[in-house]
Design a protein that fits this description.
Elements: E1 7-10, H1 15-30, E2 35-42, H2 44-54, H3 58-84, E3 87-94, H4 97-107, E4 112-116, H5 128-138, E5 143-146, E6 156-160, H6 165-177, E7 182-189, H7 194-197, H8 204-228, E8 236-242, H9 245-255, E9 260-264, H10 278-286, E10 290-294
Parallel strand pairs: 1-2, 1-4, 2-3, 4-5, 6-7, 6-9, 7-8, 9-10
Antiparallel strand pairs: 5-10
Length: about 300
């Protein structure tokens, strides 16, 4: 991916979806790209019930509902265009939202999918929480989950790094998403067997030296990781912190007032394509800022 050019925004016409629409328009403006696609998905069960209530065939109900939804979608797109200067094309699909959104992203070769989430209660949200969860598992395109009202471009981006291929993909996309933002690459490390060394008769001085050496090695690895990205971009920060990745990422993002976390889908513990890494899952669930999940080979 050479740049963010083709953005797909999924909406259910809710307030949270409106946040996603505005963020997508803001990204388009920042990348000087003036067109994106706005889509909505109606489930078949709703269509069948409407056909019964309208006393029409499913085909006739489909046509009527599609036209009505498309008008509403176009009105939404027109408002965004007037506000942000970005033109949105409109698409209406029927089916399961996660499946249809994922399929459409492949059809148009989307560089980014943007959806809304209801604050920090991401997975408990009745409609979009379930859809977003399924999209993260299914989708092969980068997915931006917007939790907050977009009042300004992203200014402080956090990229958790575990040196996996997925982590590298996330880092490369983070460098592209907001050219003027400050980016912090964070590696959370562990001192293996540290708690057992004292029981084995190892002196405290030796344990302290081991801790220092482990931190130095983590920092060297992070420096090499950043150097391998081959970027001349300014505003790159780096940090290594001892602890549990999920808790550290959450607390670090809050302390640094991060407004976007860009994270790989799997990390080192990949088992199969449909499994989301535990750190990624916890980050999505517990952090308050926007989250971008980057699948393998997305860049």
């Amino acid at each position: 991916m050479s740049d963010i050019q083709n953005i797909l925004v999924a909406t259910d016409f809710s307030e949270r979806a409106e946040r996603a629409e505005k963020r997508a328009a803001m990204l388009c403006t920042g990348h000087k790209y003036n067109i994106a696609e706005l889509m909505t998905v109606k489930e078949y069960v709703q269509l069948e019930e409407l056909a019964r209530l309208m006393n029409k065939s499913p085909e006739a109900a489909n046509t009527e509902v599609t036209h009505a939804v498309l008008r509403e979608l176009q009105a939404r797109a027109s408002g965004l265009s007037d506000e942000c200067g970005v033109k949105f094309t409109c698409t209406v699909r029927f089916g399961q939202p996660a499946i249809e959104i994922s399929a459409r992203s492949e059809e148009i070769f989307a560089d980014l999918i943007v959806i809304g989430a209801h604050g920090s209660n991401f997975f408990t949200d009745i409609f979009l929480g379930n859809t977003a969860d399924k999209l993260i598992r299914r989708c092969r395109r980068p997915l931006l989950v917007v939790k907050n009202e977009p009042t300004f471009p992203y200014r402080n981006i956090l990229v958790p790094v575990d040196f996996s291929d997925d982590s590298r993909q996330a880092a490369q996309l983070a460098l592209q998403i907001e050219p003027q933002a400050e980016i912090t690459f964070l590696h959370v490390y562990d001192v293996m067997f540290a708690s057992k060394l004292s029981y084995a008769g190892v002196s405290q001085d030796a344990i302290d030296r081991y801790r220092i050496k482990t931190r130095q090695e983590a920092l060297l690895a992070l420096n090499k990781f950043i150097d391998d990205l081959d970027t001349s971009r300014r505003g790159i920060m780096r940090d290594v912190v001892l602890g549990h990745p999920s808790a550290i990422v959450r607390d670090y993002a809050e302390k640094m007032q991060t407004d976007l976390i860009v994270i790989g889908k799997h990390g080192r513990s990949r088992i199969e394509e449909l499994i989301v890494g535990s750190v990624t899952r916890d980050t999505i669930h517990w952090t308050k800022c926007d989250i971008m999940v980057v699948p393998p080979l997305a860049v």
